[in-house]
Amino acid sequence: MKRKITVGFLMLSFFAFSQQNTIDQKVNALLKKMTIEEKIGQLNQYTGDNQATGPITINPNKEAEIKQGLIGSMLNVLGTKYTRQYQELAMQSRLKIPLLFAQDVIHGYKTSFPIPLAEAASWDLAAMELSARVAATQAAASGIHWTFAPMVDIGRDPRWGRVMEGAGEDTYLGSRIAAARVKGIQGKLGDVNSVLACVKHFAAYGAAIGGRDYNSVDMSERMLWETYLPPFKSALDAGAATFMNSFNDLNGIPATGNKYLQRDILKGKWNFQGFVVSDWGSIGEMVAHGYVKDNKEAALSAITAGSDMDMESNAYRYNLAQLVKENKVSITLIDDAVRRILRKKFELGLFEDPYKYCNTEREQRELNNPEHRKIAREVAAKSIVLLKNENDLLPIAKSTKKIAFIGPMVKEHKANMGFWAVDLPEVDYNKEIVSQWEGLKNKVGKNAELLYAKGCEIDDNNKEGFAEAVATAMKADVVILSIGERWDMSGEAKSRSNIHLPGVQEELVKAIQATGKPVVVLINAGRPLVFNWTADSVPAILYTWWLGSEAGNAIADVLFGDYNPSAKLPMTFPRDEGQIPIYYNHFNTGRPAPNDTATHYVSAYIDLKNSPKFPFGFGLSYTQFEYSNLKLSQTKMKKNETIELAFQLKNTGKVAGEEVVQLYLRDKVGSVVRPVIELKDFQKIKLNPGETKTIRFSINKEKLSFYGKDLNWIAEPGDFDLMIGSSSTDIRLKTIFELIE
Ligand code: NOJ
Fold first, then answer.
1. Beta strands 731-740 and 718-725: pairing type?
2. If you compute the radius of gyration of the chain from its CA atoms, what whole number of angstroms results?
3. Please, where are the H alpha helices in 221-273?
4. Dihedral angle sign, alpha carbons of residues 613, 616, 621, 625
5. Counting atoms of ligand 1 from 1, which one is nearest the CA of 205?
């Protein structure tokens, strides 16, 4: 049996190898025929006329340039009708090199999925892979070859609007999610449903100073390698075809012109064979950074540093040929970039059939596939975090007769998609997106009376609607209040210095809570918000983020207990902006505060606690779980050994539920100081009421390693705390083991 598998594996590897070999031969043959202008054309990407995702420059010659082979790729062209039209122009060019169509398919295409940060809260890798697969299938059916996803930037600063696009603050969780998303997006390269992934933004964009978008990043080499780079590496190991560099400078060198990042690490040490695209205009923006004097120097810097494709800067298009003539850029460098791009076009099968992704019938079928909506509903339910549930107010009993549904989000449709949703011109989003009102109506049918009042807008100061809202609440048995951020308050260029609930919404919560009715608050947002009064006062809170097409149905599923919430926060929720950046895996310092009130010569604020409002990894369920009986195969391990651990997890409540069991470690003494706690593994376990399962994990050297002072991954002998938790602060089982020489 084993032998058969080995032979099969060898044959497959040989097949993959020889296929790559033939592709390389084809690429080389084509390259020989190309003029320098045609080569540079392949490195040039323009936006189309659909929704702009950056500061657009209209190019009236686009069509003529495609026919001349001067454009290799386009973004923001939506729908097979248009991709076909542009592809037909490319087929009139001398060498008939197909265009590559790219799009930001960040959380769904026509069927909108929860924003990536929300999905991350599910800690459900299979669900995230599936959601990415569905999004890619729809995008591919609509003519898209390449998506600018996944975004794998670590986000420790909720003021930064782009945390909504990532997987949160943790490197381990983020790395696992990065791999799942790449696999989901790409499926099997070459299949008609496969879309190239683009891992972004390389690198360290998430650490923008002050959480202000596009801002500089200054960080130690150790922090870069240990915290910010691993999700990129994980995405690469999962087969990611392309990378995008980023807007920020890193320690004074713009990422786009950063040779260390792109050439030395990515293409060098990591041996990345795909291509790197710049971010929108980021080559040209090196002038504003003050790193180069003009677009020509910018082109020289970017191509030398390893940026293969120029998105919307026009820097390569107008300068590279001259730079080659002046011997400042070698033709080998250009050839390498072109090769990388052509290879992907061959791998997708576009040379065999440039219209492979242009089948209108398939487009209609996939964009209206009911199975996709079903998946979107499941993933949305899995993303909702139960933050509070006093006296088991939730789930709402199905026998409840009068429910007041109040707040500015209740009857919204499109707003449930949040930022980075694909906006298809022909789609009526009032029909496409199930509003929260509709979801509730679908759920209760004629069994309950639903009452509505808006109360207020998301972010103005008008309280005129309060009286009606209060009167409506007074008539009901239970009140559900849906508030949060407007869809465009988190996202690119949406940094906020104040992340409290906007407008007068928290005052509305106070007014409704004062009625004495049981109140459930839903918070819709793209980032962790600050809502202390609400958190301390109302009995039940669900963090619903922005959930996409099936938002209303998924929320109703959770409210009524048809889905038992299982999500856990992928980011720490601060008490106040003054705590930011705040993250669970911090260092201890030499004067750690022993508790939240100590301030006397300890590392603390005199006007704010150190602890977060809600910790990383936190989320409740309608049931409870008991952890017991932790056993280790050994308490001392050598570097080449593995510790096997096991414990019992029991569902002690009355309903079935899922628990995310989290394995944390603390390296007690290190040659560089180590975090007080670090996530090293997790599993999501489903248990029926009363059911017990044995949960097993393995600990190997890799889990004990960190990026040491000699700038290498090392595991140092010594004691480790091992903690099994239901969150990063709710540790249920704890022991110690030792790594020995
Ligand atoms: C700029 C964003 O930073 C990037 O993530 C996106 O993919 C491009 N614009 C293209 O829309």
1. antiparallel
2. 26
3. 221-223, 230-237, 259
4. negative
5. 3
Distance CA 409, CA 516 (A): 22
CA-CA distances (angstroms) from residue 683 to 322, 595, 626, 649, 686? 55, 30, 15, 12, 10
The conformational region for residue 556 under phi > 0 = left, psi -120 to 50 = alpha, else beta, is: alpha
Say yes or no: CB of residue 162 within 6 Å of ligand 1.
no
Between the CA of 313 and the centroid of ligand 1 the distance, in Å, is: 13
Type of residue numbered 587: F
Cβ(438) to ligand 1 under 6 A?
Answer: no
Nearest to 132 by CA among 333, 356, 372: 372
Which residue's C-alpha comes closest to atom 1 of ligand 1?
Answer: 280
Q: Supply the residues annotated as catalytic.
A: 279
Residue closest by Cα to atom 8 of ligand 1: 280
Please give the distance, rounded to the nearest whole angstrom, from the Cα atom of residue 200 to the centre of ligand 1: 9
Q: What is the pLDDT of residue 7?
A: 59
Specify the pTM.
0.97
Ligand 1 pocket: which of 73, 147, 148 to mutate (most atoms <8 Å of CB)?
148
Mutate which of 51, 153, 244, 278 for ligand 1? The one with the most ligand atoms within 8 Å of its CB, which is 244
Q: pLDDT band at residue 20, thresholds of 50, 70 and 90? A: confident
* 260-318 pLDDT tens trace: 999 999 999 999 999 999 999 999 999 999 999 999 999 999 999 999 999 999 999 99
Output the six-digit token pair for 389.
Answer: 């549930």
Q: Which domains does the chain have, with CATH numbers?
A: 2-361 (3.20.20.300), 370-572 (3.40.50.1700), 625-740 (2.60.40.10)
- Per DSSP bridges, beta strands 657-667 and 678-687 are antiparallel
- Separation of 493 CA from ligand 1 center, angstroms? 11
CB of 550 sitting under 6 A from ligand 1: no
3-state secondary structure of 397: coil
Q: Which residue has a Cα nearest atom 7 of ligand 1?
A: 148
* Closest protein CA for atom 3 of ligand 1: 279
From the list 360, 347, 338, the residue with the least C-alpha distance to 73 is 338
Q: Which residues neighbour 42 within 8 Å (Cβ) at sequence distance 6 or greater?
A: 72, 97, 337, 338, 341, 342
pLDDT in tens, 255-266: 999 999 999 999
Q: Hey, how many other C-beta atoms are within 10 angstroms of the C-beta on 21?
A: 10
pLDDT > 60? residue 5: no
Residue 163 Cα to ligand 1 midpoint, Å, equals 14
- What value does the mean pLDDT of the chain take? 96
CB 117 within 8 A of CB 167: yes
Q: Tokens 């509903």: give the residue.
A: 377
How many CA atoms are closer than 13 Å to the CA of 573, on its beta-carbon side? 24
Q: Is the CB of 54 under 6 A from ligand 1?
A: yes
CB within 8 Å of 434: residues ≥ 6 apart: 416, 442, 549, 550, 551, 552, 553
> How much is the pLDDT for 408?
98
Work out the percent of the chain whose per-residue pLDDT is above 70.
Answer: 98
